[in-house]
Amino acid sequence: MTKTNPGRFFEDYRLGETITHAVPRTLSGGERALYHALYPARHALHSSDAFAQRCGLPQSPLDDLIVFHTVFGKTVPDISLNAVANLGYAEGRFLRPVYPGTTLRSVSEVIGLKQNSNGKSGVVWVRTTGLDEADTPVLNYVRWVMVRKSDPDAPAPETTIPDLADHVAPNALTLPDGLTFDRYDTALAGEPHRAADYQIGEIIDHVDGVTVEEAEHMMATRLWQNTAKVHFDATNREDGKRLIYGGHVISLARALSFNGLANAQMILAINAGAHANPCFAGDTVRAWSEVLDKADLAPGLTALRLRLVATKGAPGALRGDDGKYLADVLLDLDYWALMPA
Amino acid sequence: MTKTNPGRFFEDYRLGETITHAVPRTLSGGERALYHALYPARHALHSSDAFAQRCGLPQSPLDDLIVFHTVFGKTVPDISLNAVANLGYAEGRFLRPVYPGTTLRSVSEVIGLKQNSNGKSGVVWVRTTGLDEADTPVLNYVRWVMVRKSDPDAPAPETTIPDLADHVAPNALTLPDGLTFDRYDTALAGEPHRAADYQIGEIIDHVDGVTVEEAEHMMATRLWQNTAKVHFDATNREDGKRLIYGGHVISLARALSFNGLANAQMILAINAGAHANPCFAGDTVRAWSEVLDKADLAPGLTALRLRLVATKGAPGALRGDDGKYLADVLLDLDYWALMPA
Amino acid sequence: MTKTNPGRFFEDYRLGETITHAVPRTLSGGERALYHALYPARHALHSSDAFAQRCGLPQSPLDDLIVFHTVFGKTVPDISLNAVANLGYAEGRFLRPVYPGTTLRSVSEVIGLKQNSNGKSGVVWVRTTGLDEADTPVLNYVRWVMVRKSDPDAPAPETTIPDLADHVAPNALTLPDGLTFDRYDTALAGEPHRAADYQIGEIIDHVDGVTVEEAEHMMATRLWQNTAKVHFDATNREDGKRLIYGGHVISLARALSFNGLANAQMILAINAGAHANPCFAGDTVRAWSEVLDKADLAPGLTALRLRLVATKGAPGALRGDDGKYLADVLLDLDYWALMPA
Fold first, then answer.
1. Fold of A1-27+62-152
2. What is the pLDDT of residues A212-243, one digit of tens each?
3. ipTM for this prediction
4. Is residue C69 packed enough to be buried (19+ CB in 10 Å), middle (13-18) or exposed (0-12)?
């Protein structure tokens, strides 16, 4: 009997089953320092204990995307080891800040299955929850992937497509206990613009570009204990290229968006996301944002719904005349961020 | 008088002398995070405080190889700066878990000397001990290196070849105080296979490969304050290549071995080891293991004696017809690991 | 209105104004571990809590250059985003050790302005102070940069050139509270040479070389939240090269200087510094030091004034017959370091 994990194939998933993902992980100041070394992250709430304490938190929480990547990474051996494509995200909600010292683990529920018409693969929808060491949920999101079948003759499951929200409703966004921007210092945060200064429809070009190196994306991806071989093994693809973990591009784009969105301190929800084209070492990643919506959550606290687009050329259009993403587009992410009103 | 350290030459060693190695080092969660970024390490005991606490430990200990590399790195300026070759390891014993906050230092005793017949170099055997800030030993191992003579006319020392055990006897293995696998959770550990599921002679191909980058192995080697110039200076060799620290390959192979040996949670001893061929950036490192022996140490706790082989091609044979390591073999390591029975 | 930070131009500075720099940063053991991974740093006081405690400090302080880079990095968006050249440093004083857990921020006062005769740019002098979370200064230094004008027709300010000390006077050097070298252990520090063993005028070749990779200098520079695009964006220069942050070369050279100056434990002051030539990935950085002066500060505590020179070839002369730095010279730094007498 083989001892190694071959990953799950499409026919291995059962609707409603719960998968406990392996290898809980305790996060520390070390992960925070590495996050700052790997991404040009500067949002003050995630950088400074003193700033976070002025905002009513006990200390600086780990970057929301550290939590996302850690929770996501644990699901890879069970969900996406044999995935052909990572198709989408929905209903991602950050439920409470995560501080250094927290141990995270992940569980996923299979909420949808649909065999493809070619009979060789199918789409699996899972709702993944990140839990701390007291089993309190810190993050919850749906993603769906296309997974190969191992046995083409395995019977197709009944098709179940989950009913997913187009975006997280503002009243479903969770604010951290005690959070207040009453004593918010825009000079220390880096920009004067508050939520009221942003217009729905406004486009912000984040200006800066970062050329990506192999060592960086592999260190980042390993840090999240994400083991998908396409990221690490140059012999895996015929062209000798290592595919960069899509989450690396999310973090790069989010960090670049500081320049123009320095006060969008926390990610409250991920509404949707598409990895439009693959990213490889040598690409220079840039980003732009579009303000999609605004919602007042509490006195002084406003959520901005943002489209965050990463490109590998000059920022420009998103889709061609055929409705498809242009070749330069790497990421199209729809999320809610928290800002001082 | 020159102020810099020229390193020791063969004639500088005296049998029985004790060498205090410089630069004690306090380890923190930062080293742990970097270890996870540099290697695909996933053993749960070294990843999660919560998992370690269920196993009776106060928190997650630092990876055994963090301890090994830190202790080893301190010896380089005194033992291997002028080494021609790192010939072997023996009698390596991990004596207690090391937690973040511990300060490690190293001392070595010269236990063997043998001048080579060419009169230009010799073999030095040292027993190195890693000590914490209370001078409690945490690790003990023998290694031997071939070192150049500075003065070919220096007299040869009396030949003394230490009597080294072929492998650490099971009753010499040290279990951490309080360790128990009574509440061990295989789902969180990542695989169902316990010691009883492994057969002596069984071979496990760990499947995954990692292509190594210059930045990664240099960061790792520096992290252990290992200063051997062959690892860092591209002008040092005629071919412009930087030789990868052998310990980097050990860590890569051990981390890759998670896939098939996820429950081999701790390294208890290093019985022997050979760096069969040099590793360079661009190589894709793979690994396979062979179960050499098993030993029950305490109720529920079994040690597996494992051969861990790292290769830079597809895993295959170890030695050619001439008995020499094949060109693709990078590492042949013999160690004891602790598993739930 | 654009939301992004275009940086300041020469005409935007006013003599005497104080600039609060954004994004305070809490440092942890993670930054220390990364510093050790990115640089071959081995000074024992910054490596070991136990060693630091023997020297009368509560624990090992973060490397002085971690403090310098963090404080410096915060100033980049306000001072040097549009800088044509980083011209010099003066009167840099380290005022107290910084320990993990400290939050640093930076403020700068504009102390000098001089428009260039071409009318297109000018020199700005700022005195920057690094403050901890209690607003206690930890570092103070002057630097001056040449900055472009956005509007060539903007009127020239009155020329004010600050009166800067050639070097920090010994009686202006600050010793950490409680520091003593009475129980200093040279074996653990790595070298026997105390201040008395160094002669003014003595030259020390630090022997080792480090070939620099793109991933390393970018990770380091990001770690200090330094956002200057020349370091990250390969499309920014016509030659496709990324300019390495000058501070990266300072840290490399300082770390290399361990070999010959292992007991120069702390940097007390930066007297002057010039980035003589740009450094790029692929360069092999070497270093040499010259003892410029000595000053007894307290019983057992002596400051050495050192010239630290980084080169990308074999160490040699500093300047050509024309008085200009030779092409191989990367850095010429004048600093005070603390040593056991």
1. Thiol Ester Dehydrase; Chain A (3.10.129)
2. 999 999 999 999 999 888 999 999 899 999 99
3. 0.96
4. buried
